[in-house]
Amino acid sequence: MNGYKAYKVTIKDDEGNDLEKEVGLRELWNYVPEEEWKREARNAELQYFRETHRFCGSCGAEMRPSTEISVKCPACGREDFPSLSPAILVLIKRGEKALLVHARNFSRPMFALVAGFVETGETLEECVTREVEEETTLKISNIRYFGSQSWPFPSQLMIAFTAEHSDGELSFADGELSDGGWFSREEPPLLPTLPSLSRKLIDAWLENKI
Question: CA–CA separation, 123 vs 119, rounded Å?
């Protein structure tokens, strides 16, 4: 029960013959137009919502479809809509270098950005400051919004920022990160793949756009 499915795509083998291949939602981005990928991502997120909201959280009755995106309890009238888990990511600059980090849960030896979920009662900017300090002990300033992205794994809203290093030395404080450092544009490490917002933000920095 994860709301995902396998997608069949056609690729070419070394001799130019068509081969059928099954890919997951994230890899599908490499084979279809962006708008088609967004539709499939939205469908996957809604499917996950329906699978995890089969029964009413108030009275336990089986939920029924109500609108395109909601389900409703026929017994007590409660109506549930998909909820999002907002998460920040931030590219921290120190001069001409940027902080890239490796999280312990990464399946590949890549480096990405400091990231974390927004907690109850805090603003996005407060979350950026807290996550950076918790994970790296660094102090930052000049927090600026970069962009956002729906990320259906399973139901996140990613919000990206840039910031400037203001004080402190890099230290992996809470155990979520296992490696990291200040990288130049000329020698970046292995990076996350598109269409992740993390990669888009890093690419903007590599291209001197931010």
Answer: 8
- pLDDT confidence of residue 3: 45
Residue 101 near residue 176, CB atoms below 8 Å: no
Q: Which residue shows structure tokens 């996005």? A: 124
- How are beta strands 97-103 and 114-117 bridged, if at all? unpaired
Task: For residue 192, say if its preceding peptide bond is cis, omega within 30 degrees of 0.
Answer: no
In this prediction, residues 140-166 reach a mean pLDDT of 96
Give the number of residues written for the chain.
210
Residue that the structure tokens 């002990």 belong to:
137
11-17-21-25 Cα dihedral, nearest 10 degrees:
10
Kind and range of the H or E run holding 197: helix 197-206
Query: What are the tens digits of pLDDT across the range 173-197?
Result: 778 899 999 999 999 999 999 899 9
pLDDT of 72 reads: 98
